[in-house]
Amino acid sequence: MTKTISPTTHDLLCLSHLRWKFVFQRPQHLMSRFAKQRRVFFVEEPVYSEDHVAQIESVVCPLSGVTVVTPRLSEAWRGNAHQIIAPMLGQFLREQNVTTPITWFYTPMALDLLPATVSPAAVIYDCMDELSGFRGAHSQISEYERRLMKAANLVFTGGVSLYEAKRSLHPRVHSFPSGVDIAHFAHARKQQEEPADQRTIAGPRIGYAGVVDERLDLDLLRQVAQRRPSWQFIMIGPVVKIDPDTLPRTANIHWLGMKEYLDLPRYFSGWDLGMMPFAMNDATRFISPTKTPEYLAAGLPVVSTPIRDVVCPYGEFGLAHIAKNAEEFVTEAENAMTFGMSLKWRERADEFLRTMSWDATWKSMNKLIEDALESRDSTAVPAMVKQVGEAARV
Questions:
Q1: Neighbours of 186 (CB within 10 A)
Q2: Residue 366 to residue 374: CA distance in whole angstroms
Q3: What is the CATH number of domain 12-179+357-393?
Q4: Do the beta carbons of residue 166 and residue 157 sit within 8 Å?
Q5: Are 362 and 370 in contact (CB under 8 A)?
Q6: Would you say 246 and 11 are in contact if contact means Cβ atoms under 8 Å apart?
């Protein structure tokens, strides 16, 4: 069935540092929902090659209707990509008759990519992570964020910790912690056909699903695996920004690689515990892991290091076990697997999760955006964004 979009409905232009076909997370959940009522253009970071090409490729995601836009450039443009992407993107948007979109930023560095011909109806900054704390962060990212904050109508944050860090920087900051597709992960509570690469792994199985990068405490994982050689640790997700040779390679740690979002319940159904062995560093200071509610929706008990947005509220509500070191991790994992899946525990977890669906998050965000569109000065926002973009490109 073809969806009907009103001609008065603003398109949404999303500028992201993450790829659409990367781990299915916050951007994909939200943009898929926005695409039900408006055209959504999701602009990825550029793809580089040795070919002397410069072009914009686009493809409509068949499941969501989101148009995924990928700049393709020669390696020679790396470091100055914005100088060629911005005009190419502007031409593409003109061809698509995109003139006054809601402009949604996931990274302040995308200010460089905003075409001068775009006049945003509203500017949204969805700050899902503190990118300045990540390995390889741009040296000027904090300055770019200051400029983006100046232009934004609304700022959303990916958790309470980020909200507390950003609320003094803008008059309209709203906290939207990680949501969950409850129905999707609830399939894990029923008998599922075992995926081939997990089928022969013995139990008990303790699993992690997410990006494998500097945010994981690999030494902690190694120590826990060594303390309990009979436990099997299943690691799902792409290895990013770290040397794969640094991954602990013990007989009971199984690196299964990246999996499709649709297949995750099949893996989770065979686990006894969901774990989050995050390091305590600058990259994890403000994270609000999506895996916490996903594990709970799958009916799994959870053990995590003391990430602030996991301790409060999940740890305080008795929905996650918190461990500071390998010894505590083993103890809490044993307790969780022994006592963590009672009917009373699941009922308490389900009651908490009802407030956290991605549908509810999207509806709340959409209402704030509609209110902002109704109340804004129709000339101030585009002028401000153009000034900010031009300043960023200097």
A1: 16
A2: 12
A3: 3.40.50.2000
A4: yes
A5: no
A6: no
Phi, psi of 11 (to 5 degrees): -65, 165
pLDDT for 53-107, tens place per residue? 889 999 999 999 999 999 999 888 787 888 899 999 999 999 999 999 999 999 9
Q: What tokens were used for 136?
A: 């390889």
pLDDT score at 344: 82
N-to-C CA span, the chain: 46
The encoded tokens of residue 156 equal 């959303």
Domains 12-179+357-393 and 182-353 share a fold: yes
Site of tokens 């997990």: 198
Residue with tokens 């916050």: 26
The span from the CA of 17 to the CA of 110, in Å, is 8
* Cα four-point dihedral sign 365, 368, 371, 375: negative
Give the burial class of 246: count Cβ atoms within 10 A of its Cβ; 0-12 exposed, 13-18 middle, 19 or more buried.
exposed
List Cα–Cα distances, 209 to 143, 193, 206, 234, 265, in angstroms. Answer: 33, 18, 10, 8, 11
**DSSP letters along 205-268, please?**
EEEEES-BSTTB-HHHHHHHHHH-TTSEEEEES-B-SS-GGGS---TTEEEEE---GGGHHHHH
Closest CA to 276 of 247, 225, 310, 252: 310
Segments making up each domain of the chain, as ranges: 12-179+357-393, 182-353
pLDDT in tens, 145-183: 999 999 999 999 999 999 999 999 999 999 999 899 999
How many CA within 13 A on the CB side of residue 365?
28
Which of 17, 59, 23 has the alpha carbon at shortest distance from 40? Answer: 59
Angle, in degrees to the nearest 10, between helices 380-393 and 82-95: 150
Domain 182-353: assigned CATH number: 3.40.50.2000
Distance CA 324, CA 304 (A): 8
Residues 6+ apart with CB under 8 A from 184: 265, 297
Question: What is the pTM for the complete model shown?
Answer: 0.89
315: left (phi over 0), alpha (psi -120 to 50) or beta: alpha
CA atoms within 13 A on the CB side of 215: 24
Angstrom distances, CA of residue 158 to CA of 266, 341, 385: 27, 28, 23
